[in-house]
Amino acid sequence: MCRLLGVVTHAPTRLADTLTDLIEPFTGLSREHCDGWGVAAWQPDGELAVSKDVLPAHASPAFAATLAGSVTDAALLHLRMASPGLPTEPRNTHPFSAGALAFAHNGYFAPVEAIDELIDPDLLAGADGDTDSERYFLRVLTRLHDEDPVDALALAAADIRERAQFASLNCLLLTQDALYAYSEENPDSEVSRRRGPDFFRLRYQARAGRVVVASSGIGAQDGDGWSLLPYRQVLEIRRSDLRVSTHLVRGALVGAGG
């Protein structure tokens, strides 16, 4: 299992400064979620920069250097805890990216090939790694051929729900326009029963100049300025004005194939 953290700010700022109150607890989680880290961030020149390492974030000099050196108004961060049997390699390290898109997932589904038939064949042929998470991203990319990011996320999750066993489909998607988050847990999964009802919750906090969305474990609690993202809803944080909205995609509530 993994941990997610996303942020959008009103102006480009060093991530080390933007997340000064969250870096220490988030990095601390890498003592358990220790199979690598990744950061995707929009740079002031309009390029999407992706940095990764297979070392735990707390033991990786590159992690601290990335936070100190990334000047951005929108970023997502990921700490990986690899699913059993999946190797700890750069190609399996989140976030996955394609052009102006970056994606990170917290959870798993099985079997890994459960949605392969729903993925554009060219995208599937170009897969870098072995993870279910990358397949999730490729299904989102396939959906994006015909749908907007909100629908693509929710419907891709529904596709997985129909065809696979899963623990969580929580994910972040970073685009040129916005940061999106999707939340869904299977409470009957072994991980959910063992970890408890808060482990897969995503929460978000909006305050002057900054909106963040985060997995549990960094002090994000109901109240205290944090709001719970309901299951099977998509959170949208616009880069242009920090407008925050949540979306319920009705066609995805039960499931959607094709």
UniProtKB/TrEMBL annotation:
Pfam families: GATase_4. This is Putative glutamine amidotransferase. Signal peptide: none annotated. Residues 2-258 form the Glutamine amidotransferase type-2 domain. Gene3D superfamilies: Glutamine Phosphoribosylpyrophosphate, subunit 1, domain 1. One of its GO terms (molecular function) is transferase activity. PROSITE patterns: GATASE_TYPE_2. InterPro entries: EgtC-like (IPR026869), GATase_2_dom (IPR017932), Ntn_hydrolases_N (IPR029055). It comes from the Bacteria.
